[in-house]
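[job 0412] stage=fold_complex status=start
inputs:
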Amino acid sequence: MRQLDVSKLKALVTAIFEKVGVCPEQAQIIAQTLLEAEQRGVHSHGVVCVTRYVDLIQKGFMKANMEHEVLRSAPAVEVWDGKRSNGQVLGYYAMKRAMEKAKSCGVGMVGVKSTNHFGAGAYYAQMAQKEGMIGIALSTGSPTMAPWGGAEKAIGNNPLAIAVPTREEIPPVLDMAQSVVANGKITNMMKQGIKEIPEGWALDKEGMPTTKMEDFYSVTPLGAYKGFGMSFMVDVLSGLLIGGGVGFEAGDFKDGPGIMMMALDVAAFRDPQMFLSDVDHRIQELKSVRKAKNSSGIMMPGEPEARSFAECAQKVSVLPEIMDSLNDLARQLGLEPVE
Amino acid sequence: MRQLDVSKLKALVTAIFEKVGVCPEQAQIIAQTLLEAEQRGVHSHGVVCVTRYVDLIQKGFMKANMEHEVLRSAPAVEVWDGKRSNGQVLGYYAMKRAMEKAKSCGVGMVGVKSTNHFGAGAYYAQMAQKEGMIGIALSTGSPTMAPWGGAEKAIGNNPLAIAVPTREEIPPVLDMAQSVVANGKITNMMKQGIKEIPEGWALDKEGMPTTKMEDFYSVTPLGAYKGFGMSFMVDVLSGLLIGGGVGFEAGDFKDGPGIMMMALDVAAFRDPQMFLSDVDHRIQELKSVRKAKNSSGIMMPGEPEARSFAECAQKVSVLPEIMDSLNDLARQLGLEPVE
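[job 0412] stage=fold_complex status=done
writing structure:
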């Protein structure tokens, strides 16, 4: 892994997007989401995405600057056509709008069809969390899983992210793919030349479990039929419900994924101060139970990522292969690479 | 298993609740939810619950008839104090209210604190589904799981149910506990004298995997930390957010669980006819992929239960031990047992 200065890397990523026509404000949003993923240790959704997004912009599958049209509007709901704009930028503005809706109705949902890869869902859920709300972010994805019982990839491992505010404790953030591990985790291992996959993560072309990278075909749904069921529900809520892409239609070179941003205004449900105290208390209660044999301790959802974020305030580790590609791209665009 | 006539069994369950003071309308709601669970093959949430609920009514932990107070109200949100009324009846009326809110705002959320066990969440989610809406039902539960990494039970395997309407296909219903299998499934096996638990289902007092019924202590969270994370989020959304019981406070003899009912009015998001067609099409697409080796086929969430429901229109199978307890209770209350 290569150690890089966060601010330099962020400046490079911002500059790259500006070079391909993204306005400074939106380039900043994209860079911010990708760098935060790196700092949180979620390398599969970090700067590895830059070359992919630039390629999509250059090929005309991603608009350099956001365009959107409001298709439907109800007091607590809005649905947009994202017109293949950048997923991070759409996610950012859709969550902002969901939070406005939540302020007036208690809950707000903003769905966007025809988007692009939104990176780590945690980012949008945390936007609400930072305002004292509960944030939920969903996205369809192109197929990485077979329906349970099947042997052909047909459904994404559709992420679900939920973030909850606290008073003193680390705010919990669940950001999970509906597979045992994210597809990107296995493809990142592949890039590092790793030949063995841990048991339970992967299936081969016959839909049978495999630990050999060379036989890797699809990721295993979490809890078998339950993970498949959850993925289907994410397909419905962030795809079919708003006319967004599901399955192969959610792919980079098709209609792109659909996303759903949801915010809950705690004050509509309960006194926010009592809520924050109760969340803190519940976290303390759960973390203080006796440890399992051989356990290194109890972690709340998002706690490892929050610890990584704090440790990586100044510097992040990036795979050499990923940095090489990023610097190659920088040079092509006439920018100074970072080391 | 004993074969019983659905209408006779339902009449008995209704009569039992009326005998302990429940009004006919509400006794009917309770009986309907329990019988539907039996017909759907979800025996852990069927008539096995009757003796438990009657005991709670007799001991004063469950109100015979619903009382509730509206604590908070926003255009799309309502929060009730359920005053320890019956969980099925509160769930039924809370989902009705959530559907009204959804009709005016696009989405409606109604949370109830101080409830009681609501049985199978699928029932409430399906209420919305039957009206062409998407229904979501959540409940906290008393501890059956240890936090991941811990060895002491401190969190429920908090159910999440989501139901989606269709045009022609079987409407998908996901109703899942956040553990590999529901706690009730293992305790039902215990009642049948089964000594071995399938691998991966259960943990012992040290938080280590076990297959011995005698060492069974807690259920394994689905996908390890992910299932724990999901359970925590259900604790937040249907518990802490509305001041409802979580952990031991969600127990029958404490404050009882909190529940959250949510309905989405499809028309606020998209043309409902196009939505229904797309859901049908997506189901067909997923079910038609090539089968995995040794697979018996691809089932959508809730499909096995829907098939069981159709087969059990007239008769259901109930464990002899459960029927014996139910008939004992009937006799005690001066009612005719059913055979």
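[job 0412] summary: The radius of gyration of chain A is 20 Å.
[job 0412] exit 0
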